[in-house]
Amino acid sequence: MLSVISNRKKKFKNLYDTYSELLFVVALRYVSNQFDAEEVIQRGFIKAYKSLNKFRGKTAAEEKAWLKRIMINESLLFLREQKRHLVTELTIESDWEEELEEEALNPELCFQLVKDLPDGYRSVFNLNVIEGYSHKEIAEELGISESTSRSQLQRARKLLQSKIKHYETAHRRYI
Amino acid sequence: MKQHIDDIFKQQLNDLEEFPKGIAFNKEQNWKQIDNQINSSSSSFSNLIKVAAVVAIVLLLGWGWQLKQHNAALNAQVIQLNQQLVIQSEKQNQMEKELAQLPLQTTPEKTRIQIRYKTIKAMPRIIVKHELNVNVQPFVAYRIPVELEKIDDRSNQFIKNMPEVPTYYESEQLASTESPKRKGWIKRSIDRINTEN
Q1: What is the total count of domains within chain A?
Q2: Are A41 and A77 part of one and the same domain?
Q3: CB under 8 Å to A64, separation ≥6 — which residues?
Q4: Minimum mean pLDDT among A114-123, A138-147, B176-185: which range?
Q5: Could you tell me if residue A91 is inside a domain?
């Protein structure tokens, strides 16, 4: 019995060492605050430990996907517990294009831009664009309608576009 | 080269291999906290297992004790039955010995088997015998002659001795000396005494 527990713990420690940083970034993309992300990570890993014996995945990709899913769910649960508004209403008055120069963005900037989005936009953008959820799934996950999910995504895109423009302008001035 | 905004973000963030700058993640500290929580939950789990084990042991002991009691009662019954069987078999042996001692010529095999069968199978029963003892003895009846006169004298004497006692009769007819029945009865009595004498 004890050996089974110690083996389970060893396996869990390996998982933590391998994926904790990556999952921390994922959590941070959703909750935007470092301390909140740490809280989410702890909760998520404890949940993962409890359901480790039920997990049947064997490959690294399966492990990563499983843990990522847990962290996303925990992040959304955390946002709901914090009573943060998952629907954001902002008026963005700017012309925007759906297409951008690829070279204009690097991973860190993208991360920063997404992290700085309002809660509602960020959740929908992360779930739809990064994780690949459909609007129906997002609606079920967040408890909103599909049309709300679509409008939130559109507004998130507009906001990101405007921020990128501001960034480019500032960058050019700096150069 | 222009690309859709979604694709750019997806590509950049999915392939985010390096940890972003300006973000600190205290891996060890977080692990300690996770480990503490896991240990506390596992210790509560192990406590639960211990309690469950204790309950199971108590239940098993109780069940075992009950089984033992049941077996003891059953054994006592078996011993009692065995004793009865021994007594019965002793009786049977005794009977067989007695039968064996009888001469074979006088007791045919068939009778012996029947006797043995009856000895083994016969249940105790109460046989009520009704016996009627009839004793015949000579009986002589004597008729004693009654002297009515004397009796009458005595009764009169007795009545005379109690002159003040009132005499009651069942009816006025009987009370009357003039009653024809009474007159007849007296007359018949006097006649009978005279004939006997």
Answers
A1: 2
A2: yes
A3: A19, A22
A4: B176-185
A5: no
Digit-coded pLDDT (tens) for B7-53: 888 888 876 656 777 778 888 889 999 999 888 877 777 788 889 99
Which residue is listed with tokens 């609606």?
A139
Which of A7-16 are b and which e, b meaning 16 or more Cβ less than 10 Å from the residue's Cβ? Answer: eebeebeebb
> Domain segments of chain B: what residues?
28-104, 165-197
- Considering only CB atoms, B13 lies closest to which of A21, A102, A107, namely A107
Specify the CATH number for the domain of residue A10.
1.10.1740.10
Question: For residue A112, is it within any domain?
Answer: yes
- Residue B16 near residue A111, CB atoms below 8 Å: yes
- Give chain A positions within 8 Å (CB) of B21: 108
Q: Which of B9, B24, B30 sits opposite A129 (nearest CB)?
A: B9
Beta strand A99-101 with B2-4 is: antiparallel
Query: CB distance B20–A106 less than 8 Å?
Result: no
Measured between CB atoms, does A110 come within 8 Å of chain B? yes
**Considering chain A, what percentage of its residues have pLDDT values greater than 70?**
82
Domain extent, residue A39, equals: 2-81
pLDDT of residue A120: 85
Inspect the interface and report whether the beta carbons of A129 and B10 lie closer than 8 Å: yes
Q: What is the CATH number of the domain that holds A111?
A: 1.10.10.10
Helices (H), chain A: 2-31, 34-50, 60-81, 107-115, 119-125, 135-142, 146-174
